[in-house]
Design brief:
By secondary structure, the chain is α/β, with parallel strands linked by helices. The chain contains 10 helices and 13 strands.
Length: 343
Amino acid sequence: MDLVPVVGPAARDSHRHGRGLMAVRVVIAGGSGYLGRALASAARARGAEVVVLTRSPRPGAAHRQVGWDGRSPGPWTAELEGEDVRVANLAGRLVDCRPTAANIAELRSSRVEATSALVAASRQASRPVRHWLQASTTAIWSDGGHARLTESSPVPDVPPGLPQMTGVAAPWEAAVTGAHAEHLRILRTSIVLGGHSPVLSRLMLPVRLGLGGPIAGGRQWFSWIHLADWLTMACAALGLEETVTLPDGVLVAAAPHPVTNAELMAGMRRALRRPAWAPPTPAPLLRAAAVVLRTDPALASTGRHATSERLEGTGFTFRHPHLDGALAALHEPAGPARPAGHH
């Protein structure tokens, strides 16, 4: 395949490592999802060639797509051959589903099998992956109650950790063990707030319907991160941010100021210019609505106060550290286009 010389942060990173001007290839598994599409655009804006691994390649897609089954090595492993290859593993079924045993098994297998396939491919490659971004989730702590969670907080067993949370995320992280990579960073991502994201649309629905009060008591913690900040952190994990150098290992991708569910709902009412008060959603009503919407009520009734203790000194700065500012940015008129995640 033809590779073009890279300009921008990716090329400068290659120069710093004495490799000269070359093409940086970012291979994204799960690149057809919401975060994957955003990351692909951000990586391309930073000068990288982007390859998306997908079960259903589409002609005319914004980025080159390569088919894979998400379970085993195949012809797609050739994409990991090159002077400077970086991997972003975001693959996995969406968690917005009923917590049945079959669904939980699929949530887990879709992540573990895809990760194991990437690890196997990396071990067959002639060179190590330069930077590996492994997706994970702050839901690995299940319901954290009022504990202050950071990268050093222990992960619960299952039980007491929920099988659809800890039971999915813990083996997902474990599956990346043995990856042939120079740098491996695991991002435990909180709820990502971005324009037109499925999560934000689901959160905004009761507010738009004139409801939007506290859910299931409203005391559960809500850790979150604005899409622009997540993209900066994800690109830094891939070595594409020249001013940010992240340490290897686990990193919490969450804004420094979590809020309670009651504060979240109040913030969304302000963002949508709804009345200051709205009727609450008690736990029984939440469970009934979850059945109708075919989702997991624990996604709203549980929470975590998760922040990072490892970002200090890395050069990373949150553009949106507070919820009101993040929500206001998502609902303000669009300005001139610029690469997502740039300062």
